[in-house]
Hints:
2 copies of one chain form a homodimer.
Chain A: H1 5-12, H2 16-23, H3 31-44, H4 50-57, E1 62-67, H5 77-91, E2 96-101, H6 109-118, E3 124-128, H7 135-142, E4 147-150, E5 161-164, H8 166-179, E6 185-189, H9 195-210, E7 220-222, H10 227-238, E8 246-249, H11 252-264, E9 274-279, E10 292-295, H12 298-313, E11 322-325, E12 328-330
Helix pairs in contact in A: 1-2, 1-3, 5-12, 6-7, 8-9, 10-11
Chain A binds a DNA duplex through residues 4-6, 14-18, 20-21, 24, 28-30, 33, 48-49, 51-58.
Amino acid sequence: MSVTLKDIARKVGYSVTTVSRALNDYDDVSEETKQLIKRVAQEMGYHPHVIAQSLQRRRTNTVGFIVPATDRYLSDPYFLELLAGIGDGAASHDFDLLVSTCKPMDPQERVVYERMVRGRRVDGIVVARTRCDDERIAYLLSEGFPLVAFGRTASDLDFPCLDVDGERGVYEAVEYLIGLGHRRIGFIAPSMYLMFAEHRLAGYKRALRDNDLEDDAALVVEGNLTQARGYQRMEQLLDLEEPPTAVVAGNDLMAFGAMEAAQERGLVVGRDVAVIGFDDVPLAAYFHPALTTIRQPIYDIGKMLSQMLIKIINGEELAERQIILQPELVIRESSG
Amino acid sequence: MSVTLKDIARKVGYSVTTVSRALNDYDDVSEETKQLIKRVAQEMGYHPHVIAQSLQRRRTNTVGFIVPATDRYLSDPYFLELLAGIGDGAASHDFDLLVSTCKPMDPQERVVYERMVRGRRVDGIVVARTRCDDERIAYLLSEGFPLVAFGRTASDLDFPCLDVDGERGVYEAVEYLIGLGHRRIGFIAPSMYLMFAEHRLAGYKRALRDNDLEDDAALVVEGNLTQARGYQRMEQLLDLEEPPTAVVAGNDLMAFGAMEAAQERGLVVGRDVAVIGFDDVPLAAYFHPALTTIRQPIYDIGKMLSQMLIKIINGEELAERQIILQPELVIRESSG
DNA sequence: CTGTTAGCGCGTTCAA
DNA sequence: TTGAACGCGCTAACAG
């Protein structure tokens, strides 16, 4: 077994209480005994029993994150970045990260969240990929459980969140395409139950409107954020009587699929047809042609999310309850 | 606050002990009281306090995994699959998953592992990407801490592990290329401190030898598993007096980078030069051209890893202490 | 069948 | 400046 306070106490001849206080730097312990106890603790290889601390402090010092895993083999590299950010942000405050996975919208989802909440395994939860109407957030709110979300919702729930201005991002991308001379621009939307799908679609529509371009319903198709679906939807767009000369995809993965579909028809992406993605995942720059995309700093977002959450857990005030970051259009080759 | 055993006990008029036993289905509680207690617990919305259980049972029901995060923006989608597999495998046994990140070979690494081990936050750890000489495994072994590794080591440490036969995988890939008529075949190795780099390189060399091909040292270059490095190394190979007509990369990411480098020189991958990867990450099939690669079932591997680990934690015997899986060559377009 | 007693390892009153 | 006593929520040994 491992060293406990009791062991140290026995060794130094002080009570467990004093040892505890010495180790936690209470100022009602004499400097000498403090030194002594700390030295002995060090020598004996003492490490606090985190679980016992949690029980006593009523604090786990752990944040939870449920990866919205799509089917295996369709996972989005994006989540690894987000995860790393959340984990590192948490670690910087001595918090750990508990991870589960669950298919979005799965009936099991509620259970997975409940498991974390009811079992009090974590002090707060990071919710990613908010939905227009998000039961997860509603649930956490109803339980009074600390949360922070990556994304907004359409409902009037009030909760702390961080989001990227996808509306603006897509708007700028479309304006850029129009500037390049494109008149028929397609949009492969993310699944429309996702809040950011709405935002991005809105950006697309507004840009067309502002430039007096017709908003042809046939040019908007709905994907599910996977390459496979991006590929299919692109085929659909290219099969149109009057196919688009440029396409904005709701995320990079779909853009990759879309590029593949175009190339299989002998089109040269960046010359015959322009493709723009969203996210700027690491691979985007190494695709052929390199993908023009709307960049969001995912790792940093993850970091900020966990730091916001920990502030909330600590009962501190948040400077802003809702932070909106501006994305950045990264122009590479796929847009011509 | 939330409902505890005490609350239920008070309500039903039994002792805390009896309530605990009833809820845990001990058979020394009368059927009626059991029913009663369970019903009331349900009504009151009781959920066991996992932390308190952990303290008492000396078991956290949690496994740990430290993601060998390379620099941000260079993360390997592969780890998300692995993570999902580990998480799901654990969940199937009612275990949770605690995740940290750490740069491989970072001085901080030891601290991160110690944190999990000494704090007794987890019952066991999954170690990924084993090194030829792996201090992490040596450490865990020295602490007598349950572990299972994805990969072998060069040392004679005895520990449970699961690995893919990379030697065989690359051997087959090279034989396949030779069958296609290639005579000058390059190899972009993973960082050589990684054990699987040795295996894969060995497969490459053996295949050349078995086919009486010269083992030209210039054809073997060392990468670091990132697209960027794959790109650089491919340039290096193409700059050779006698460049290779085919290249096997140590993983898919480097293969992507290599393809990009070839394409930038106007070479058509799959016709002018063949490229083969290793892993079969989701994107491989959607690259242009689609990547021929050596597939390892990462998600399933993750699942098996956590299941092995949990067996060990439970003190059960492992059927095999060392499992070697056979990878599968998936032929697509990049190999011509 | 059920309750009492004892911890798991720690932090925190309160008295001395 | 220090220690005894208590409790966090739960399980387990032992009586009865």
